[in-house]
Amino acid sequence: MAAVKAGPARRTRSARARLCLIALAAASTWVQPARFAQSAESDPPAPAAAADTAAARVEARSAELLAVGTVRGEHMTIHLSRLDDNAPVRDAQVALMLRGATHPATALADGGYAVATPDLALPGTAAVRIEVTAGGKGQVLEGTLQPATAPETTADKGSSRQLGWWVLNFAVCIGFLWLWQRRKRDDPDEQAPG
């Protein structure tokens, strides 16, 4: 009689274990693609694309003025301001000295100045002199042009998470096969009469 009662109890335990494994397998296969699709969308751009959007930068100072230049390709935008009150300097004559050549700047509508020269696209750091003449007074601002640095990205970002999901999926599949094999072995209906 005890053997008869133990049989159904064993079957219900194995059925519960099978249901848990099936639920885990289903959850891991549904959740995994959504999580990786989301992480792929939020990943930073590839290094080549990041280098295109990154801007080189230069800060040049004098006793009274600060010039901040942003370089994209062969174009530099310069914003000039006073150090004491951070007020923009407009209506000035600005020239950029870079790699031994002088390049005049043109005034922009927003109060900044623009310079276009192929020398800006050359690699490496370079000494920069910005000559400013405003209100009959001339000043020289000096700084160093720093090349743009692309943010570091690693090719294996998220690979440990992906490896974890693969291990979980394989473990669930192996567990399911093990329970199925055990059920076939213990099921009296499938055994040959003896």
Would you kindly provide a written description of the structure presented here, covering whatever features stand out?
By secondary structure, this protein is of the alpha+beta class. The chain folds into two domains: 2-40 and 156-186; 55-145, Immunoglobulin-like, CATH 2.60.40. The protein is 39% helix and 29% strand. The protein has three helices and nine strands; from the N terminus they run H-H-E-E-E-E-E-E-E-E-E-H. It has a nine-stranded antiparallel sheet, with no helix packed on it. Helix 1 (2-42) runs antiparallel to helix 3. The longest helix has 41 residues, at 2-42. The relative contact order is 0.16.
Total domain count: 2
Portion in helices: 25-40%
Mean pLDDT: 75
H-E order: HHEEEEEEEEEH
Structural class: alpha+beta
Strand content: 25-35%
Q: What is the strand tally?
A: 9
| CATH topology descriptor of the largest domain | Immunoglobulin-like
> Which CATH architecture of the largest domain?
Sandwich
| Sequence stretches where pLDDT stays below 50 over 5 or more residues | 44-52
